[in-house]
Structure formats: C-alpha cells, structure tokens
Amino acid sequence: MTQIIDRRLSGKNKSAVNRQRFIRRYKSQIKKAVGEAISGRSITDIDRGEKINIPAKDISEPAIGHGSGGRREGINPGNTDFVSGDQFERPPSGAGGKGGDASNKGEGEDEFMFNLSREEFLEFFFEDLALPDLVKTQLAKMTDYKSVRAGHTPNGVPSNIDVERSLKGSLARRIALSAPYRAQLKEVRARLEALQAQPDPDSDEIKALEDEAARLKKRIDTIPFIDTFDLRYRNRVKQPMPTTQAVMFCLMDVSGSMNEYRKDIAKRFFILLYLFLTRHYERIQLVFIRHHTVAMEVDEDDFFYARETGGTVVSSALELMYEIIKERYPTSNWNIYAAQASDGDNWDDDSPLCRDLLMSKIMPCLQYFAYVEIEAKQPQNLWREYEQVDEAFGNFAMQRIHDLPDIYPVFRQLFKKQQA
Amino acid sequence: MKRNVISEGTEWTFELIQEYDQEIARVAAHYGLDTYPIQIEIISAEQMMDAYSSVGMPVGYHHWSYGKQFAAVEQRYRRGHMGLAYEIVINSNPCIAYLMEENTMMMQALVLAHAGYGHNSFFKNNYLFQTWTSADAIIDYLIFAKNYISKCEERHGVEQVELLLDSCHALMNYGVDRYKRPSKLSAQQERQRQEEREVYLQSLVNDLWRTVPVKQAAEQDKREAPFPSEPQENLLYFLEKNAPLLEPWQREVIRIVRKIAQYFYPQRQTQVMNEGWATFWHYTILNHMYDEGLLTDGFMIEFMQSHTNVVAQPPYNHPHYSGINPYALGFAMMTDIRRICEEPTEEDRHWFPDIAGGDWVKVLDFAMRNFKDESFIAQYLSPKLIRDFKLFAVLDDDAKDKLEISAIHDERGYRYIRQVLADQYNLGSREPNIQVYNVARRGDRSLTLRHSQYNRRPLNEDTDEVLKHLGRLWGFDVRLETVSDDGTVEMTHEWKEKEKR
After folding, report:
1. Is the Cβ of B6 closer than 8 Å to some Cβ of chain A?
2. Residues B198, B200, B206: CA angle, nearest 5 degrees
3. Which of A38, A273, B179, B414 is the most exposed place for a label (fewest CB within 10 A)?
4. Share of chain A above pLDDT 90, in %
5. Mean of pLDDT values over A111-115
6. Is A57 on the interface with B (CB under 8 A)?
7. Assigned domain for A187 exists
8. pLDDT tens, A361-388?
9. What pLDDT shows up at residue B203?
C-alpha cells in the first residue's frame, strides 16, 4: 500500500516565482534599503548580498481579528502559588501572565527581515540600466563550440588518420613481433657460416640450417606491414566556447595634471563599469592602457599607482588599443568595451586625429565607449572633437565629472536604458 | 526477550524505510487504525522550506505572500532560530507524507508512524474532515487552481490577479461555512440544478412581464424585502455569487480561495486532537515494536528524546512559554483516556462513567471520529490532567483594574477550567463573528455587515484595511455595524467607493 518516491532531485526552488513576486511587490521598500546599504559601503565592496529590513506593517496581510479590550479569559499551565480569587496588576503590555521577553535577539518584531542575495542586490543597484547593445550577448547565450585537438584515438573516420603516427606504430609493432625470429635467424646464419667455413662441411646439416633460415625469414616476412592495430586517428573534441566574454579597455591619462584625486575618481568609474559588466558576462578581461605622450599596456597596479609626468597625446592610447584589438580580441569572439578617463588635456593637433581614429577604426569594433572628463574647468578641444563622435555613434557616451559623489549619477546616465 | 532488530545504525535506506513501514503498518492494523494508502516522499531541507511556505499545499498558485513566507522561514532557518519540522503531511488520498533526507532512521520511522498512520487515520475518519474535505480530489483541485490562476495572469495581467488574490486572502477566514453542512446528496444536487433551470426560465418570463404595469402595493412589498433574506456568514461565497461588478473569472478565483480555505478549516479546528492523536500513535506503535524486540535500545533512547521535546509544556512563567502546546495537551489527553479505560480511579468513575474501564482502543477511536478540539476538551479533559498541567484561568476584563485568577486546579475549578479551555479552542469565539446583513439594492447598493460582539471585544486595527479589500470586491460602499452584547447597533467602520481614487 505504501509507495516511496524520491523527490530530492526534482522541483527545487518551487518558491522562486513567489519570491520574485514578493521582491517586485515591495520594490520601493527594498530599493530604499538597498540605497541605504550602498551609501554605507565602499564601492569596491559592492559585490555581495545584503540583509534587508522592511517595516513589518508595510507587508502584513490584513485579517480581521479581535483587538485588545473587552473581557477575555485564558488558561495557562504551570500554576505555582495562585489561588482562585487572587488579583494582580496588569503586566505593562501583552497578554496577562506571559513571562519572558520575546525579542532579546536584536531583531524587533516590527521588522520583517530577509536576505537579498548578491544577484538580487546588484539587480536593484543596476536597475534601469541595460547594456547598450545586447545583441551579441543574446547570441552568445547559445554556446558556441570550437573543436580542439585532443590527442589520438585508435578508431575514427579514415580522413582523420594520422599517417605518421600510424606508420610509427606499424614499425614498432613489426620490430617487436619479429625480434625473436630475427635473433634466431641471426644465430642460424652464424652457425651456417661457421659450418661453411669448415673444410669439410656436412651438406645435410647445411641443408637443414638453410631450411631453418628460410623458414624464419618467411615468418618475419609474414608479419604484416601495417595492421588495423597500428592505425591512429587525430582526435578532436568540441569545447564549449563562451562568447559571453568581454574585454574592457581602461584608458587613462597619467600625465602630470592627473593627480591622485582625479585618479581615484577614474578608478571608481572603472570599477563601476567592471561590476556592471560582471552582471552580463561570464568572463571579463581587463586591459589597462595608460598614456602621456606615449601609451603603454600595464597591469592594474601600475595603472593606478605609478606616476608619470609630461604632456599628453591621447591618440597614442587609441592606436595601441586598436592594435591590441586586432591582435588579441577579434570582434567575432569578444564584446569589447572601453572606458576612458582624462582631465581633458590633449595636445591640440592630436584631437582631430583621435576623432578620426575613433570614427573610422575603433568605434565599429566596440560595444560601447564611455568617456569621462574629470575636473575640467572648460570643455577642452578633445571634448569638442569627441562631441562629433558622440553625434555619429549611438554607443558612444561622454560625461563630465566634478566630484566623488558625481560618479554614481554619471554612471547611471552613461548607461541609461536606450529607448529603442 | 528475543531480539530480531530491524536495523542498528542511524543511516536510512529505501529498503529500511520499507521494512519499518511494513512493521508499523502491521502494528497499526493490530490497533485497528484505518488509513488511506501512503505515499512517502523523500525531500531535501530546501524543499521542506518550499513546502512550508506554501502552507503545506503540494501544488499552489503563485502569490507574493508565499514568497514572503519563504524568505522569513529561510532567514530564521539560516540563523538557527528554528529547526524545520520533521514532517509535513497532506490530507489527500493517497496520503502524502514528506520525509526529510537529513533525518536519521529513527526519525524517519517516527515520522512514518506519526504522519503516515496517525494523521492519516485522523484525516480519513474524523467527521470534520469527512464532511468538509475530499481527499480524493484535493490534489487535482489544487492543480486546477494553479493552472486556472496562471491562465488568468496571462489573460488579465499578473497585477490584476494579485490584487484580487490579496482581497480574497484578507477575507479567507470568512470564506468558510461554519454551521451549514455541504450538500452532498446527488439527489439534492439534482434538485438544485433543477431549481436553477427554473430560475432561468423564470427570468425569461420576468422579462416579458416587466413591461406590464405592477400594482403599487406589490412594489412596496418588494422594496421592503431585505437582501440577503438571512444573514450570510460566508462572505466570500456571498461575494462570489452576488457582487455586482465582478467578471466571471474573478468569481472563479474567489471560489478557488474559498475552496482552499474550506479545505484547511477542519485542520484549524482539530489542532490539539490531530497532533495528540498522531503523537499518541507514534508513541504507542514504536513502544509496541520495542516490546516485540524490533528496535534497539539506542533507537529507543533517541526516540524518547525527540518525543519528550515534542510534548514539552513549559510553565506560564518560563521564558519559552508561548501558550499551551497542542502536542503536549493532545498527547496527554489521549494517554489519559487510555488510562481511564485501563486503570480508572474513583474520581474517573465519577467523572467518566461511560468510558471508565472500557476498551481503550474503541473509546479512543470514537473520540477521534466524532469530536473537534472544542468539544473534545469539553468532553474528555479530566481533573487529573488539570492537576498534572496545573492549569489556572486568568480573567482579563478591561472594565476592571486588575487581572483576576478566576479558577485553579482544585475541586471548584475543574469544570470551569475545562469550559474556558474548550472555549479557547472554539474558532467561533476566537474569530469575530461577522456576517453579511443587508444590501441596499434600491439605494446606493452599499453592503452592510454586522459584527456580533463577543465579550465586548472590539475588532483589531486591520479591520479598515480588510474592509477596503471587501469594497474592492463588492464595488460599492461597505459598512460594518457592531452589535454589542446588550443588543445596541452602531456603525463602527465604513469604506466609501469614492475613496478608491
């Protein structure tokens, strides 16, 4: 009559939909809590979940019941010394006779508390933002495969036969199989020679030895030149190739006018962009290019902390970036993003060059290019040239930042949902 | 004693569960437990939390409140504030019992005996469950409800359906027939259907007659006739049938919530009995098996530890006290009935002449079948138990300055305590009595509800909010009048349709 069913593998997360609905419904409250959490955290620490408190009364489900008051009588267990007719003062609040404080665990009954996962937290953080061009990402959701060599196998299709390997195998087999016969043959021939060298050879014995040699020779010859056993085929396996990969170029001016403060702003800008990309891509590579009059690809430490002095030639960085793209990041496999931070200074004659570089070569390869100008008093010539790029390309954005608190709003504006 | 123990270790396997189940079934049959077939489902802790948050329904429609429930359960579980229940059992045929994979073999056996045979036989035989729930159909109905509601979501938008469900949930406790019995005779249904046909034909005829001038006096009479003709206790049913502005799918959703509320209603009325019954039987069955030498001493020690945890009743002044533990009270009462049958004292013979010295299996079976918490306590709570639990009654009357101990566990107090405790489990007095009183059919179409006050208790502060939901379903003004104990009527809450905007 009894039936046992193992359900452990099926139907996990049955409540996921309900949870989503709950979060959607209390979006404004949760958003407020997320906002508070963000202001209380450093930006580098943004990438984790959060405990959310919502006032319990906001999310209670109303139900009619009895309020306090009126006449009520209750039964309690564990009487120690009451006798009927005893009277005593009402306890300050709560039902009569109840001992113990319910919430001494640092968590009030008035608050509904639950955990927002890291993903959900960031979802709120990035709300209203979307990648400007998600076409590639969507394509990449279907995993691409590339076939990769994976050694050799003893069976396969004829077209994959590796001739050299197969012949090597054949040779080895032939050597191995014929070895005992050849040893014997050698011995027989030696004896034969010795016999023939004698003044009076025994013709019978010579005959016998010759027969033996012929027999051995035949044995050796019957070993096949090539056998199916020798065949080796080139093996290829399909490897999933995530195209949900992105590369992010960080370009920064490190000329003398970029002081620590400006670099700090730039850094936070890059971090936010990076975080944003982690929401959409499985793998992200970072390329750091810093430049003054010449550009260099450096590691992260050098990028942010090494100091340089001198003038500024922005086009050097753009050229280097283009070369790196050509060399290492074919656009068919990579979603390419670029973020450039500068204080706006550039060598005057160089700015039109930058514009041309961007418009003719770089922009067609990119998903998005974001440019921020930090603490510039006046729009400089680079800004004016970039404005032309901005007009020509929808996936180009530029913004001026003045102070630390500007970062987040600027970031939002940079990536604000494009009305399709 | 001969020993042929089923298993030694704590690890469970499917084979072992089967073996234990066979033995438990044998013992249960020995005691005459009548059950549905059992469907044991092994689930993980996470799935248990899922089951928790959907109020134990194996399939449920989507609603944010279940998500909230899940978040709360998960939070408390993660922080270690609570353990998960060892079992959830569903009143269905076959009876579905969940076993958690983390449980030890002992625990699986305990849950099997408790849920698979205890609760199961209660579901099958208690009169409330027999009257109000149909175990054969519930799973199918829940699947239907889930599909229907998701279809509505597709057609009318998640938002619309959610608002409607919110309103229905707010009135869920008023979606049950407390006193009326459901019609189950097919002849009766037939008659009803026929009546419906008649009404339909009549309505066609009425249309013909509408143009004929009616006598003034007759019109007058009609205007006076109140609607509904009798007060209606099932608010959701009333709305489903009579709310003027609802669309058919909205009525169907109300019906779904109402049906589910009705399905759970017996469980809310038989907590003490149901848990007491199941606890009594896991205790009795496992002890029986131990006496037969099927269980090891280690198993028994582990079992006793779990069992005593379940039936612990902290006294009123204990920090962990949160009311009377239904497991403790129910188990104690069931055990006590057996004691009264087997070893009655003078006192028992005086209080329970019918059952003292009787066949305990039969007496318990009768009690399980024919009572709910309220009547069960009123019938079977013995003076000995009142003394054992040291029960005392506290009277809190807001007309008086002080609380009063109205009775304790002494000769004068037994009956009084028994009565007050029984009343404490009476859903009728625990929940405010609110009924549909009148609809102003010719006027502003407002709906008037009447709350009959109980012991001068006022309604809580959620009432206005619930009235808003009621108004959303009704579509016109809603008023709530309170009838106090002395019979005076006063309008206490009102929701105006205009406020909607």
Report:
1. no
2. 100
3. B179
4. 5
5. 79
6. no
7. yes
8. 888 888 888 888 887 677 777 888 888 8
9. 63
Are A233 and A152 within 8 A, CB to CB? yes
CB under 8 A, 24+ apart: contacts of B1-4: B1/B293, B2/B293, B3/B293, B4/B293, B4/B294
Q: Write the residue in B78, B413, B459 that is nearest to A84 by C-beta.
A: B413
Of B25, B420, B465, the CB nearest to A75: B420
Chain A residue nearest residue B457, CA to CA: A70
Instruction: Note the pLDDT of residue A136.
Output: 38
CB neighbourhood size of B494 (10 A): 16
Q: Where a domain ends, among A191, A219, A235?
A: A235
Q: Is residue A10 part of a domain?
A: no
Output the six-digit token pair for B428: 């009728």
For A14, the closest of B50, B424, B455 (CB atoms) is: B50
Would you call A78 and B318 a contact, using CB atoms and an 8 Å cutoff? yes
State the total domains in chain A. 3
Q: Kindly report the length of chain A.
A: 420
Of B47, B319, B430, nearest to A12 by CB-CB distance is B47
Same-domain check for residues A211 and A316: no
Its domain, for residue A222, covers: 158-235
The domain locations on chain B are 14-126+270-305, 184-232+432-501, 311-428
Cut 0.90: pTM above it: no
Asked if the C-beta of B457 comes within 8 angstroms of chain A's C-beta atoms, the answer is yes
Residue A420 in any domain: the answer is no
Report chain A's mean pLDDT, rounded to a whole number.
77
Does the distance separating the beta carbons of B75 and A79 come in below 8 Å? Answer: no
Residue A300 lies in a domain: yes
**A73:B396 CB<8 A:** yes
Cis peptide before B94 (omega within 30 of 0): yes
Higher-pLDDT residue of A130, A318:
A318
pLDDT at A407: 67
Mean pLDDT of B147-157: 92
| Burial degree of A141 (CB within 10 A; 0-12, 13-18, 19+) | exposed
Distance from CA of A307 to the nearest CA of B (A): 48
